[in-house]
Every structure is written in C-alpha cells, then in structure tokens.
Amino acid sequence: MSRAPSIVSRVVLGLLLLFAAVLTFELIFNRDHYFVGIDYRTYRDAAAGWLAGDGFYRPFQLAGRYDVVNDPTNYAILYPPVVLWLLVPFIFLPAWLWWAIPISIIAIALWFLRPAIWAWCVLLAAFDFWGRVPELFMWGNPGMWAVAVGALGTIVPGAAVAVLLKPTLAPFALFGVNRRAWWVGLAIFVAACLPFGGMWLDYARVVSNSSLTITYSLWDYPAMALPIVAWLGRSGRSLTSYLPEIGRSRQSPELDGH
Predict the structure, then answer these.
(1) DSSP string, 125-183
(2) FRET partner for 91 with CA separation of 20 to 30 A, picked from 50, 99, 119, 208?
(3) DSSP state of 76
C-alpha cells in the first residue's frame, strides 16, 4: 500500500507524456494549419526592417490609437527595442536555432534540477492543457525565450533578469534578486538598453496607443511559472516537504541557500 502513490504518479506521468507526444506530433505534421513559426517570421522581418532603416514598429502603431488583433498579416510589434539584441542575429542564423536554443536551455536546466515526479506532472499538464504553453513554441513567440531564461535563472544566478525583454513579465525577472549576481545582470541589461535611445519613446507611444492593458500577458504567467515549479521540485524533492513542520524552530538549511 505504501507504494500505491508512487505507482499512481508514474501512471499519471506516463499518460501526460503520451498526450504531450501526440500533441507535438499533431503540431509538427499540421504546422501550416496552426501557423507554426508565424511570430518568429513576424519579429525576424521587423528586425530586418529596422536594420534596413525602415523602423522596428509598424507605422499604424505610431500613428494613433489601434486595436491589437490576431491577424497574421498585420501583427503589432509589442516588445521593447532591447529585444533587437536577440532578434537581429536570427536574420542571418538558421531558423531552426530559434527553437533549438531555448529548448536546449530548458532541457539543461531540467537536467540540473532533476524535478520530482509531481513537478514533471505539473510541467506536462501545463503543456497538454494550457494552450498558451505550446502556442509560445508553436508560433515561435519571443516569450519562449523568456521561459528559457527564467529556467536558466534557476541554475545560473542573475540570468532571470533577461526576462525583462518582455516588461509585463517583470515579476519573474526577480528570481534570485537577493543574490549579487542578479544586480550585476540588471546592470548589464540596463547597459544593453542604452544604445536604442529615442526608440524607447517610440515604444512608449506603441504601448500607449494600443488597445491592450497591462493584464494581457497574464496568459503567459503559467508558462513562466513552470521553471519555478521545476525548481521547487528540484532533486526529487517532495511537494509535502514545503509544508511547515510542527515545532520547527528555524528554516531548513536546504532552503537557506536559496
């Protein structure tokens, strides 16, 4: 009987993994139907336009009030100019690296963390049933890079600062804020922002002219929380180990280091 929870959790994990494999297969072999890579192409082309002197943001975004619509032929550019440090190299690099690099970063972080089965179940359930998680990767949205650097931040102090590439995800950039390396990372990020000068004024206009509110990125929050789930379940740690113990006089030494 003592092994029953372990057996059940492995069965659940297997079913979730099977569903994730079927979903991935469907996305790959019906990629035209699901607009696979549409965000990657949109932002790569916008970066190429900026490099050619045509500007980064769409003219209609700077002209006045506009509605953000889900139209692949007329996407608005909603990232700050600092994201060009990420986008410009992919004008020249092979497209497959746009996916391979963040997925590899996530895989390396998971390998180091070695999450417990319960954490793996949460990760796979999010991929299977929270549509925004596979969409980030299916469309090649820069948000998948935010998930990747969030995952990197769980094993490399200060790396989570790069989540600020998408300012509405700022709460997840705070992982490790109590470490000196985080503040070094913030200084580097601020330095990376400086070369874009007046483009920040354009970004402010783009944001203020849009119909979106600050809550529009809330759909991405579950995806951004997944690296934290993996960190909480690191090295096979049980979920119940986070419950307070009766008579506990001080914090566990294992948690003091984080």
Answers:
(1) HHHHH-THHHHHHHTT-THHHHHHHHHHHTTSTTGGGGGGGSGGGGGGGGTTTTSHHHH
(2) 208
(3) P
Amino acid at 152: L
Whole-structure pTM value: 0.81
The span from the CA of 129 to the CA of 135, in Å, is 11
Q: What end-to-end distance do the CA atoms of the chain give, in Å?
A: 35
Cα(152)–Cα(107) distance, rounded to whole angstroms? 10
Tokens of 198: 């007046």
Residues in the chain: 258
Which of 60-74, 131-145, 182-196 shows the lowest mean pLDDT across its residues?
Answer: 60-74
What is the residue whose two structure tokens read 């608005």?
Answer: 76
Q: Assign residue 232 a region: left if phi > 0, alpha if psi is -120 to 50, beta otherwise?
A: alpha
In sequence order, what are the beta bridge partners of 210? 66
CA distance 238 to 26: 33
Burial class (CB in 10 A: 0-12, 13-18, 19+), 77: buried
pLDDT one-digit tens code per residue, 48-78: 999 998 899 988 889 888 887 655 556 788 8
Q: What is the pLDDT of residue 256?
A: 47
* Structure tokens, 71: 């139209």
Residue 94 is classified by DSSP as -
Question: Among 132, 142, 123, 139, which Cα is nearest to 20's?
Answer: 123
